[in-house]
Every structure is written in C-alpha cells, then in structure tokens.
Amino acid sequence: MVIPAAGRGVRLGPGAPKALRALNGTPMLVHAVRAMAASRAVSLVVVVAPADGVPEVKHLLDAHALPERTDYRVVAGGDTRQESVRLGLDAVPGDVDVVLVHDAARPLVPVETVDAVVEAVRDGAVAVVPAMPVTDTVKEVEPAGGPGGPEPVVATPVRARLRAVQTPQGFDRATLVDAHATIALAGEGATDDAGMVERLGAPVVVVPGHEEAFKVTRPLDLVLAEAVLARRRANDGF
Ligand SMILES: Nc1ccn([C@@H]2O[C@H](COP(=O)(O)OP(=O)(O)OP(=O)(O)O)[C@@H](O)[C@H]2O)c(=O)n1
Ligand SMILES: C[C@](O)(CO)[C@H](O)COP(=O)(O)O
Questions:
Q1: Average model confidence (pLDDT) for the chain?
Q2: Domain presence at residue 226
Q3: Where is this site: Transition state stabilizer (predicted)?
C-alpha cells in the first residue's frame, strides 16, 4: 500500500510538513502507518515522504514500534498528491495485485474500514472508496475572483446522492497504474485516485466510511484528532 505524506500542510498553518507534526506526542504519519499496518491484509507500506525529508522519515519509522510482519519503504514525493502517489506506486513490487492509497493526513482510520475496502476489492471491484453521507447542504458556485467576494450559486445538488470521500481507497493494481500512466500531471493534480479511475471509464464503488477517518486539514481538526485519541485511551482503560 501507498501512504502519500509529502504535503506541506499549508492549511494547517506554519510548521513542519503536516505528516510529521505530532498528535499526542506521536507524528501523524506514525499514527497513519500503525492504522494501516493493523490490518492483516497489509504486508507492505510505501511511505511517500517530502522530497527533502526521506532520511528523517526513515529515522522516524525506525524509532517507533511498528508491526513486524509488515515491510516498510520510504520514497521521495512530488509537488502534488497525484505525483506523490505515482512515485509511491512505482515502488510497489509487480506481484502485488491489490493496492491501497491512504492519506497520512487521515491518521485515525479504524482497521474495520481498511478491511472493508480490501474485502470489496478482493470481491471483484476495481476501485473502492470509503465515504460518508454529507451533513451540510452543498452549493455549486461560480468561484469569485478574489477572497470574500459574493459567489453566484449555480446549483444545489440533491444531498442524499452526495458522499464525502475518504481513504484508504482500494484498487486493482493494474487499473490504478493505468490511471496514473494515462492521466497527465497538470496544475494541482487530481484530488483523489478514484477520480482518476473514473476518468478512465472504469467503475468505482463506495463502501461505508467512518467518522474517525476524517482528514486533518485545518487547526481545529488537530483538536478533534486529539479528542478522539483521548476517548480511545479512556475506553481502553475500562
Ligand atoms: N505534494 C503532495 C501533496 C499532498 N500529499 C499528501 O496527500 C495527502 C492529502 O493531502 P492534504 O491533506 O491536502 O495535505 P497537504 O497537501 O499537505 O495540505 P495543504 O493543501 O493544506 O498544504 C496528505 O497525506 C499529504 O501529505 C503528498 O503526498 N504530496
Ligand atoms: C483523497 C482525499 O482525502 C479524499 O477526500 C482528498 O481528496 C485529498 O484532497 P486534498 O486536496 O489533498 O485535501
């Protein structure tokens, strides 16, 4: 599996690259690696590190206890998530049939969600996405040129048909490799891998996601993540 962890975390504010920032004293990336390696289906984790941070990330993984039945590799990432995932995929051995892609920025995904995605791919789906129903009403707008300007509403999609997409996303390896080989790197890149598979015309299915698989994007998400960890510790204590 591939964990893209090369982002800067601009929306989180100034500091170290997001994946290296601490949650309860442990780097977010280590939480994410442990979350994925908790699944018995995961035998290899390829971490995609910031291009200038490969030795640091290798050291970090060596310094933390991780399941021993899993292999870990670290490769350098690119300027966009799309590029980083492609570089990670290049490091996955050719005999691996099922590939998961999981954001380091979703450190608290439960193992049940990982296993549900793997099972759906093993059952024959070529691309599987965990997702949650949307709780806000969503408007499509004509984006304003600058910040804060009024934005004309173009449409209000039917909320019951919308899903907020999470990771890990699971793929038949050949399909994901094909998507990354076919869809050119441009601008900010594709925001998720399943979207690239859709663009190939291949079917993508959604399975239930989990509220604890949220993405740490803005400062308030750090508060939520630490609260989830505190709740887990309290539950483990009883
Ligand atoms: N060039 C990039 C950009 C993103 N990512 C990874 O993709 C995941 C999802 O990206 P996001 O949460 O948007 O992270 P950032 O790009 O770091 O966030 P921001 O846009 O706020 O800078 C993260 O695990 C991030 O490390 C990556 O590997 N390489
Ligand atoms: C892949 C993803 O986590 C699915 O929700 C998301 O699209 C990543 O987007 P970002 O722009 O990198 O935050």
A1: 96
A2: yes
A3: 11, 18
Please indicate, yes or no, if residue 171 is contained in any of the structural domains: yes
Domain of residue 18, residue span:
2-131+164-236
Number of structural domains the chain divides into: 1
Reply yes or no on whether the pLDDT at 87 is more than 90.
yes
CATH number of residue 27's parent domain? 3.90.550.10
C-alpha of residue 237 to centroid of ligand 2, in Å: 33
C-alpha of residue 236 to centroid of ligand 1, in Å: 31
How confident is the model over 184-225, as pLDDT tens digits? 887 787 899 999 999 999 999 999 999 999 999 999 999 999
β-bridge mates for residue 134, sequence order? none
Q: Is residue 229 part of a domain?
A: yes
Q: Is the CB of 80 under 6 A from ligand 1?
A: yes
Question: Which is the closest atom of ligand 2 to the Cα of 7?
Answer: 12
Residue type, position 143, single letter: P
User: From CA 28, how far away is CA 36, in angstroms rounded?
Assistant: 13
Q: Whose CA is nearest to atom 12 of ligand 2?
A: 191
Token pair of 92 as six digits = 């996955």
Half-sphere exposure of 101 (CA within 13 A, CB side): 32
Distance 40 CA to ligand 2 centre (A): 25
Average pLDDT on 86-92 reads 98
User: What residue owns the CA closest to ligand 2's atom 1?
Assistant: 192
152 in any annotated domain: no
Q: Which residue's structure tokens are 């996303």?
A: 169
CA dihedral 228, 170, 32, 88 (to 10 degrees): -160
